[in-house]
Amino acid sequence: MRVKGTYRYDAAPEQVYDLLLDPTALQACIPGCEQLEATGVDQYRAILKVGVSAIRGTFEGDVTISDREPGRSYRMHVTAKGGPGSVSGSATIRLTADGDQTVVDVDGDAKIAGPAAGVAQRLFGGIASSMMNQFFGCLRTRLPSASTAEGR
Fold this sequence. Notes:
This protein has helices at 13-20, 23-29, 117-141, and strands spanning 2-9, 33-40, 43-52, 55-69, 73-82, 85-98, 101-113.
């Protein structure tokens, strides 16, 4: 299943890039994130409590960052398991300067398996979009200036 989104920030790409990889900001902004702990360089253990539609429960998983191009892009890989099943996926996050702003494009794929997979697959696009909008909107509040999101 494909996940995509575009978000705009009133900040330089380097500032937005650093924020997107700040564990404190990530834990505060990832919807339902109860814990985000570094386990190595660019590796994290996460615990998320999710209560959206058929996807309800606590998920534990791993997040790995790869293919870093500071200020420009990186790739994020996620695997998580919980009562309703498992989720795995990866996304490329690209930052582009646009005048005094930064445009963040997210493009990825996700797979859901387990008891909730049938229902969750049909609803996943809307759930993922909503969670991404919440996440990127929250990050915006952590920058010195505010701007608006363009979710796709």
